[in-house]
Structures are given as structure tokens and as C-alpha cells.
Amino acid sequence: MSEEQKMTPEKALHSEEVSDAKPGEDKPNVNKKTNPMMMVLGGFVVALVVGFLIFYGVAVAQVKNLSRTNFTMKSASLLHLPIASINGQKILYTDYVDNLQAMEKFYKTDTSGETEPSQDEKSDFILSRLLINNLVGQVAKDMKVTVSMDDVNKIADEQIIPGFADKTAAETEIQNRYGWTFDEFLQKIVYPTEVEKKISDKYSQEHPVDSSAGEAVRTQALEILQKIKDGADFAEMAKQYGSDGTKDQGGDLGWFSRGQMVPEFETVAFSLKKGELDSDLVKTQYGYHILQVTDTRTTKDDAGNDVQEVEARHILFPVQSTNDDAFRTFMNNKLKASDIKIIANVHNPFEGLFDVTSTDITASPDTSSIGETATDTNK
Asked: Residue 144 above 70 pLDDT?
């Protein structure tokens, strides 16, 4: 029997399948099997991805809840998790907590009797400074302003260390009061302060203040004041000539008591009677105001004491009398135009700042920076 005749049916079938392949084509591998090692590796990769997503999700949730556990802080550091962002630039959660802890430590070691801010006030202060420092960095980059560590060290040598017995004493004091090393203090406080100073100087050089502009503004304000004295509607004049957020409400400031407005404005307001229009302009750091008291009343505070309140309206004619005023306006406009996102469950320190409010003349809160306080710790 020939070899062909001895072939089994199975072999014959296999032979026919192979023979179907055209010349030049690869023969099909009918015995191809899945590699067990590839299956194991694929499963490991999937498990790794799922595990990372779970880890990331837990870390983000902990940051949003403002947790300060070791797990949260290490995870936030590893993943560079933000608490907020400004114009797409992250404000890292670890930086927020680090600054907050430094502020808390300062008040725990403070012996001056200064009132400690609430937790929300501390948070607002820290987050606002981190956002502003980041914005200052963005502006410095646009304006091509740089600050070297030599600049920072010079400030330390000339302005900080002389306030102490020596550098070691300065390092010890800063460590005890804030929990930072001397170099950390320079990087976190002195450096951003110097960057802001340098861009302020450059802006002032490029945009000198016109000293004659203030007199022109005053002349216009006096003309509008005279129109109101002659019978023009105050609210209509406010809508037409006002420059702050109250103009659409006819200049209405609502009710306020002493201590809520800048002193020079407040002094005049509480000297006027119900319905009385001040016969002259009120000059404040913001410019010239036309002021009218629309009502007065006496209320009680929490302790049952009488509190005098006035209801007033004004028309503000802003004046930039110094280079600092011009730079402050420039940065406020930058801040107003910024895209700020708050990612964690924390209050936005700029919420309502640019809404329709009377913030232009309200008394400024005590926002002395940590840096300013730190340089005075030897007192």
C-alpha cells in the first residue's frame, strides 16, 4: 500500500487544509494557543489601573473634605492634587495645608494677645494669598520680571537678620513660630513679596501717574454735585456717573454703623441728618464721593447697647493719586478677569468681591500677611 493510501482520514483532512493555501501565503497556524503569561500580565495591568483609579478617587475625596491625615497629605503630594486653580494654574493642597498649619502655629505661640481669626478667616487669608501669589507669578512672567535667590538672600541679610541677634536666632524664632526652616520662610514669604514689589516698580515706570488727572476728576465731581443741588435726581446721576458696584442701585450703600466704612467717609456720613446732602465732596483713598444720608436710626447690639446707623448713597469718582494706587487697580483688574476654580469644600475668598457691593469704601479688614508678622517676631 502506498504512503498516500496509508494516510488516515484525519491526516488527509489536515493535508487538504494546508494544500488550500496559495503559493506565497503563510500557512495558517491551526494549533495557535493563548500564552498563559500574557493572560496573567494583562490581568495584572487591569488590576493596577483599577487600583490606581480607586486610590486616586479616595485621595481626591479626602482633599475635598480637607482631611489632613498622613494618607491624604502623602497622596496629595504624590498626585499633585490642587485645592484651587487660577487661570489653569494649580494651587496645591499641600501648600494650602502647610501655610494654614504655619498660621495656626503662629497664633498658638503668640503672646501679644492678638485675637485669633476663625478657621474660615484663616482659610480665606491663606487661600487668597496663594491665589494672588500665583497670579503675581503669571504677571511677572508676562512682564519678564525675575527675582533671583541672590535678591532674596540680600533682603534676608539687610532686613530680617538684623532684627535678631544673629542668623541662628532668626532661624530658631521662625522655626518655633511657624514650623518652617529659614530657607522655607524665604521661599514662601520673602520671594513672592519681592516679585510683587518688582512688578509694581516696573508697572509704575511704564505707567506714570498723571498728577493733573486728579484735579480734572474733582472738577467733574463738583459739577455733578452742583447739578444735584439744583434738582437733578441723585439716583440718575449715580447711574450715569458712578464708577463702583452701587451705581446701578442709584448709589445705595444700605445701612451701616461706625467702623464699617473708611474713617473719612464715615465721619461725614454720621455728621449729616436724614435726607441731607453733603455740601462738599468727600475725599478718600478711592477718590471723590458725593454723599447723601437718606435715613438714620438707633438699633441694639448683642450686648443691648445702642448703635447708631445711617442709610446713605454716594457717587464715586475714582482718582489714582499714586503709582501704588495705579498698580493696585491694575492687579485688581487682573484678579477680576481671572478664572478661579475652588476644587475642595472650602470658601472662595473672592466670592462676591466683584459683585454689586459697596466694597469700594468699606473699612478694610486686618489682612496683615504672615510675612509681615514674621519679620516682627523679635519685638
From this structure: yes
What counts of helices (H) and strands (E) characterise the chain? 15, 7
Per-residue pLDDT tens over the stretch 212-227:
777 888 999 999 999 9
Q: pLDDT tier at 267 (50, 70, 90 boundaries)?
A: very high
Pairing state between β 287-300 and 89-92: unpaired
Q: Cβ distance 237 to 315 under 8 Å?
A: yes
Say if CB 250 and CB 265 are below 8 A apart.
Answer: no
Burial 37-48 (b: 16+ CB within 10 A, else e): eeeeeeeeeeee
Give residue 288's pLDDT.
93
Check: CB of residue 76 under 8 Å from CB of residue 55: no
Residue of 319, 333, 336, 310 whose CA lies nearest to 252: 310
Residue 119 burial class via C-beta count within 10 angstroms: exposed 0-12, middle 13-18, buried 19 and up? exposed
On whether the CB atoms of residues 163 and 375 are closer than 8 A, the answer is yes
CATH class of 59-208: mainly alpha
Mean pLDDT of 100-122: 90
Q: What is the pLDDT of residue 14?
A: 46
CATH number of 213-321: 3.10.50.40
Residue 359 has pLDDT above 70, yes or no: no
Q: What is the largest CA-CA distance in the chain?
A: 133
| Predicted confidence (pLDDT) at residue 373 exceeds the cutoff of 70 | no
- Sheet with 306-318: strands ordered across: 252-257, 306-318, 287-300, 282-284
- Cell 495557535 identifies what position? 32
Q: How many residues in the chain? A: 379
Distance CA 40, CA 53 (A): 20
